[in-house]
UniProtKB/TrEMBL annotation:
Domain of life of the native organism: Eukaryota
Domain Mitochondrial splicing suppressor 51 zinc-finger: 103-160
Coiled-coil residue spans: none
UniProt lineage: Eukaryota, Fungi, Fungi incertae sedis, Mucoromycota, Mortierellomycotina
Protein name, UniProt field: Translational activator for mitochondrial COX1
Residues of the Mitochondrial splicing suppressor 51-like C-terminal domain: 252-427
Alphabetical list of Pfam families matching this protein: MSS51_C (PF20179), zf-Mss51 (PF13824)
Length: 455
């Protein structure tokens, strides 16, 4: 087994330094911005904890809207028409929608003509939705289907920057090894992990939006996973996860005792490769501690790879490593994956797993970029999990994979992700469209043939 053990000095590893390739990836969504706001708040709110925070040397911004102790917006005053918001970022959003959006009534009535810019703001949700009050009044669909979600997003965004003490972001630290964690859903996870009780759906939306990435990973890999054989997992899926869990839960197999510094004594380092990384790489590292706490005996390397894999609070695309606490090492690399793959190998299905968060495998802007990557991933025989922001997005990716004719096994059939973000993200070019980050999940692996012909 010794040869399978990952090197434990990741900082010394030579990283590929191929040139940065210009990105044609989809424009980072509002998700990135919102996640950062939430993450900054979380970092600020947690400063009293002993955990060495990535931001420990940072002072809170002077910006009046991020001040922790002087609320700027009262809870009863969270709704503002976007163009009149006290938050510059929200006003900028209104301008962006006016510049790039279009009026749905114009579109419907004269599809051959260019529809006019949405300059009229709905008084109920505050979004610029139509070209004029007249067209607004003609649209019966807006209030029926879209206004409620937009109002919610409007108030959530103002709440995030209201300056109130955001207690929901005061996350718990490690817990005793004997305490069982229930990963059935957000509620049971938050309760059994000892999070402060969420007393509003808004708090749940904020927290789920930040934790969806680490918890999507954790809920798949953990022995208390909500995904079960037959219902969600295939037999091949259970085999792949059993291999990873053998590494992730060593205590239940060999009774390995815990040490204080996992990096010097851990017998196992699990590598999680997040390819095409965007928002997930911009999260402050301590958010990922909530993943690490699920596996107290395991050290992790989390590799964020792709043209938009940029560490939080820098703009540098230089390959970068960051060791956070004792259990987590982060690697950021904006190389194309093909170059990275050769350096990062060899891969082992017991220790390595891939996650593709909303990869857009079928999206016209990114499809070609993924084509050389997928066969490399399948060749490793490691588990590969992907997510999508709604049913259509998931099925587009799944169909793309099926139609490509790869030799693969399904590990997890596409299904709703128990740890999707509960927060709607609005498409600013068409505010009638909104999605939930990591709404659905699926899993595949390159096909293994257990019986090989004799040499
Ligand atoms: Zn119009
Ligand atoms: Zn409205």
């Amino acid at each position: 087994m010794a040869s399978r053990i990952r090197p434990l000095a990741p900082a010394l590893r030579t990283l590929p330094r191929t040139g940065v390739v210009a990105t044609t990836a989809r424009v980072p969504s509002a998700a990135t911005t919102a996640a950062n706001v939430a993450a900054q708040s979380a970092a600020a709110a947690r400063r009293s904890l002993s955990l060495k925070s990535f931001f420990s040397s940072r002072k809170p911004k002077a910006d009046q809207f991020t001040s922790q102790f002087e609320p700027v917006l009262e809870q009863a005053n969270l709704f503002h028409p976007l163009s009149k918001s006290p938050l510059p970022a929200v006003r900028a959003k209104a301008e962006w929608i006016e510049a790039h959006g279009s009026c749905p009534v114009c579109k419907e009535h004269s599809p051959e003509q260019k529809s006019k810019a949405p300059k009229y703001e709905c008084p109920d949700c505050g979004y610029p939705t139509h070209c004029s009050e007249e067209h607004y009044n003609m649209d019966k669909e807006h209030h029926k289907h879209y206004c409620g979600v937009l109002r919610e997003v409007n108030e959530d965004e103002h709440d995030l920057r209201s300056g109130r003490r955001m207690k929901e972001f005061e996350f718990p630290g490690a817990q005793h090894r004997d305490e069982a964690i229930n990963l059935s859903n957000w509620d049971t996870f938050l309760y059994t992990r000892g999070f402060l009780s969420m007393n509003s759906e808004r708090s749940m939306r904020h927290v789920s939006h930040v934790l969806t990435y680490p918890l999507t990973i954790g809920s798949v890999l953990h022995q208390s996973s909500p995904y079960r054989l037959g219902k969600d997992l295939t037999v091949e899926g259970l085999k792949s996860l059993a291999a990873l869990r053998h590494t992730l839960h060593p205590a239940i197999i060999s009774g390995i005792t815990q040490s204080h510094d996992l990096r010097s004594t851990a017998t196992h380092t699990v590598r999680i490769f997040c390819l095409g990384a965007r928002a997930e790489s911009h999260l402050p590292p301590h958010i990922y501690m909530q993943l690490a706490y699920l596996f107290p005996s395991t050290a992790f390397q989390i590799h964020f790879v792709g043209p938009d894999a940029i560490p939080p609070h820098t703009k540098s695309k230089e390959p970068h490593q960051h060791v956070h606490y004792e259990q987590l090492t982060f690697v950021y690399d904006s190389s194309r994956y093909e170059a990275y793959h050769a350096e990062a190998g060899p891969f082992n299905p017991y220790y390595d797993v891939f996650f593709l968060f909303s990869p857009g495998l079928a999206h016209p802007a990114t499809r070609d970029m993924w084509k050389p990557t997928i066969p490399l991933l399948l060749d490793t025989k490691c588990a590969i999990f992907g997510t999508g922001f709604d049913e259509q997005d998931v099925m587009n990716d799944v169909n793309e994979i099926e139609n490509a004719g790869y030799e693969l096994d399904w590990l997890m059939k596409p299904r709703e992700n128990a740890f999707r973000s509960l927060k709607h993200e609005v498409n600013l070019t068409d505010v009638r469209q909104s999605a939930l980050c990591n709404w659905g999940i699926w899993g595949i692996r390159g096909r293994r043939y257990d019986v090989r012909p004799a040499e």
